[in-house]
Each structure stands twice: as C-alpha cells, then as structure tokens.
Amino acid sequence: xxxxxxxxxxxxxxxxxxxYNLALEEYCxxxxxxxxxxxxxIYINNPCVVIGKHQNVFAxxxxxxxxxxxxxxxxxxxxxxxxYHDRGNINFxxxxxxxxxxxxxxxxxxxxxxxxxxxxxxxxxxNERNNILIGDKKISGNAQFSNMRVMFSHxxxxxxxxxxxxxxxxxxxxxxxxxxHVKSVISNVTNIxxxxxxxxxxxxxxxxxxxxxxxxxxxEFRLSEVIKREVELLAKTKYRSSTWxxxxxxxxxxxxxxxxxxxxxxxxxAVEKGIVREMSFETSDGRFIxxxxxxxxxxxxxxxxxxxSTDNPVNGISAVELADKVY
Length: 327
Prior knowledge:
Distance between the termini: 44 Å
Radius of gyration: 22 Å
Strand content: 25-35%
CATH architecture of the largest domain: 2-Layer Sandwich
Number of strands: 17
Structural class: alpha+beta
Number of domains: 2
CATH topology of the largest domain: BirA Bifunctional Protein, domain 2
Order of helices and strands: EHEEHHEEEHEEEEEHEHEHHEEEEHH
CATH class of the largest domain: Alpha Beta
Number of helices: 10
Strand order of the largest sheet: 10-11-6-2-1-13
C-alpha cells in the first residue's frame, strides 16, 4: 500500500464508545459500496477488553475484576487474541474490497504505521505473528475479517496505555478449560511513548499517522443520521449484548478450585451453545452437589446470581460472592 491510494476517512465524531466503534466498523464493511471506494477508520476507545470472534471469555479475561471495574468485554468479528483498549491506545482499520493479494498480507497495511513509528525514532518490526515489536515487546496487534467479497484489516497501537491495567484485565483465574476456542499468545508489551526520540503527545502522533496513511489531503465520509441510527442499533443489539459477547463462543467445560473459609471447593460447568448442560460443586469435606437447577439456563452472571440467591449450593458464602468465584 502507498499513500497515493485514495482512502476516505470515516468520521466517527471522536466517539470513544467501544461498542459503537466496533459496530461502525462492521456496518461499514457490510454496507458501504467497496467496489470503487476504500475507507480508513481510526478511533480511540474508553477502557474495554476486546476478544477475538472464536475466543472464550473465561480463558482470556479476568471477568470478576472487569465486572468490578465496570469495564466491558466485547467480542469482535475478526479472529486473533484478546486486547485491552483505553484512551492511550489507537485503533486503525482499513476497509475495502476483498483482495487475494491483501488477505493475510499485513505488511501492506502496516507499512505506513511503521513509517510513522520510524519518523518519531522508534526502531520496530513486524513479526511473523503480525505484531509490531520494539525489541521483544509488543506495541501493536493486527487481525482481519473477510467474507470473500469485502474485508478489513485492523490493528492497535499502544501509545500510552495503562500497562498495569492490561496485566490485571487479561490475567485469568486459575482454571482448567476444555474447548476448541482460540487462545491468546501471552506477550510482553510496552508503550510507544517510552521509545520515541522526540517529544510528542498522542494527538500529534495520530496526526502524523493519518498523514502517512492518507497523504496531505483526503476526503471524509460523514455519517448520515440514518447511518448513525443503524450503527447505534447494531451497537445495542450486538456489541452491548451478553448473547454476543459472552455466549457466542465454542462449547466448553471449565473447572475451578477455590475456598470458602476452611472448605476447598471444586467447581465444574459444561456449556453448549451458551446453555448450561452440567454444573456441580465438590467440597473437601466430602459433599457433592449436582446443581441441576442451572441446566438449560444461559450461562450468564445475572442468571447465576439469581439462582444462587434462591438456592445457594454452598454454605457460608453469599450468592454474589459465589457467583464471583465461578464466573
């Protein structure tokens, strides 16, 4: 890719709502006429964790911590691993007609990104996993979506993200999960700002990035009121939906061990198409509780709290505390 290719910049009005921005990306790739136009979407999100389409939430995220912090977990339509977004992370997405030459060819899409990094003195490279690294530390992950007609290639750029929050949010509980889900590859990360040779803030870096991708002049694609309403509807019904974010993952079986006072507890659940098929608790004092009331129910936090509130299978621990241990 070169900057002479004319791209239209999709204007998202500086929206930082992650559900809306992911909905906008999907709306654009599925509904815009990409036969003769190409688009670029750049956005910054409020704190959230974004997981790949085929991932298991519980294998990727510290769900109880994120729930406590009111940080949403959102499933995207592309593959790849889990990433943490905040106001120090830049997201970019190239939206265009499908091309055999460009699918899985991340060097095409990251070339102007790498140039921007080199321009501010950052020595980096694109590795075989389509990540951009400084030394052995990751600053960018990339993934693609395609239906053989249209495609997008999108990525992240850690400019000044909260690295401690990344670690806390993506640190999963000790557990055993049996599933065919896609697992994230654990990477050491760093911020771009720690490695620049010139003093530059995020917005100035973003301006440079746009120039390197779009050139000195470019057209903007402004959303009509009709499109805004359709994007908001998609955000509401899909990207803010527990059905998509939590239940749309491969079938799995999960086992966790925890304590209630001096009693050790082994928890087991089997979930198929988001529905509980088996749930049990085994305690260190010899009790086995087959919690049949949960069978046939969607495996969602609120459903678990509701059932535990009326019939708590474990003595000495509140329904909410127990739900936080297992979910």
